[in-house]
Design the sequence.
């Protein structure tokens, strides 16, 4: 009798397990705009590997690098994640801002000065508002916040210290309208280009400059091979989100959801530390040491100089000139983003000072 009950129990649990995972796909697609050479790209690979291991093969994620799922058109990524062409993505808030106007908050010219101010906004009420909006649009944010980083200006022509220095420089920007507004306000000649095409354009000298973060893009992509000058001006920031299509998310068991969430947090914390190492007050390095990660590039500015770059830092007064020159853009986008969200962010920034 006891044996019969035991066998019945085993059969029943097998049936239940099969039923629970019957809805699972044999492969899930994770989208990335960049390649596997930067910590942003490595985070995708890391996430896929850890999930496979921790779910004992129930969830099998394949990473599609370099915008493969949308022929490189990076501003379409969110749309395709929403539609289920991608199941997961580690997306840049800039690239997703075409569909979610709130995400332009991070591209507001000269809004965030440092990591402390950024963390106050992403970790506070404004961050929650944004995640809620994403969910409403069909994407669950399980890994927040990763980081592409503060965007710095590089160019092949001259050091840029005041707005006048930017005059008529051809600058590649992402296909997001706020960037066109900002660079036009500064007297430059901005051009929209996808990241894949941009790298060819740098090599061929079709553009004079570009703007991107140091640890995630400028160093891994060796921008110093094309541009001699870099200006550290923290004019915009690009947080990353590990998101899942909501329908896909709802199909996972509670146990697997927990594994996905915990792993996403772990991977994005690592990625954010890699984006900040050498650029913050040492917290990122401390964190990486704690988790046993060996870091090769500890002093990014020195590394850039060693690779032939002239690094220009701005004084507060110099940065204020750029801020003033772009004030109209800020006010225009306040309305587009939503005055409530911008106000909430401004309050957090004030408190963080
Ligand atoms: O295209 C860019 O500049 C990049 C790589 O930073 C983004 O995807 C936003």
Sequence:
């Amino acid at each position: 009798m006891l044996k019969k009950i035991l066998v019945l129990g085993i059969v029943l649990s097998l049936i239940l397990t099969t039923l629970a995972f019957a809805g699972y796909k044999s492969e899930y697609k994770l989208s990335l705009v960049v390649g596997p050479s930067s910590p942003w790209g490595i985070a995708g690979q890391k996430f896929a590997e850890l999930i496979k291991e921790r779910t004992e093969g129930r969830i099998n994620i394949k990473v599609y690098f370099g915008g493969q799922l949308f022929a490189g058109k990076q501003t379409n990524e969110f749309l395709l994640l929403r539609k289920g062409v991608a199941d997961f993505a580690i997306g840049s808030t800039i690239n997703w801002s075409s569909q979610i106007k709130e995400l332009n908050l991070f591209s507001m010219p000269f809004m965030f000065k440092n990591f402390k101010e950024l963390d106050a906004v992403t970790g506070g009420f404004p961050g929650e508002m944004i995640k809620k909006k994403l969910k409403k649009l069909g994407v669950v944010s399980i890994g927040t916040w990763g980081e592409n980083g503060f965007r710095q200006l590089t160019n092949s022509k001259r050091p840029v210290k005041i707005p006048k220095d930017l005059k008529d420089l051809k600058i590649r920007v992402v296909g997001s309208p706020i960037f066109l507004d900002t660079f036009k306000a500064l007297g430059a000649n901005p051009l929209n280009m996808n990241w894949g095409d941009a790298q060819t354009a740098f090599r061929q000298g079709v553009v004079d400059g570009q703007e991107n973060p140091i640890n995630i893009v400028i160093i891994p992509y060796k921008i110093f091979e094309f541009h001699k000058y870099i200006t550290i001006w923290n004019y915009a920031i690009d947080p990353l989100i590990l998101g899942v299509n909501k329908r896909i998310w709802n199909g996972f068991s509670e146990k697997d959801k927990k594994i996905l969430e915990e792993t996403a947090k772990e991977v994005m914390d690592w990625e954010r530390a890699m984006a900040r190492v050498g650029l913050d007050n040492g917290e990122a390095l401390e964190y990486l040491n704690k988790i046993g990660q060996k870091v090769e590039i500890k002093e990014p500015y020195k590394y850039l100089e060693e690779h032939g770059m002239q690094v220009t830092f701005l004084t507060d007064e110099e940065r204020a000139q750029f801020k003033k020159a772009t004030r109209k853009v800020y006010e225009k986008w306040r309305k587009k983003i939503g005055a409530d969200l911008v106000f909430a962010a401004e309050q957090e920034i004030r408190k963080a000072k």
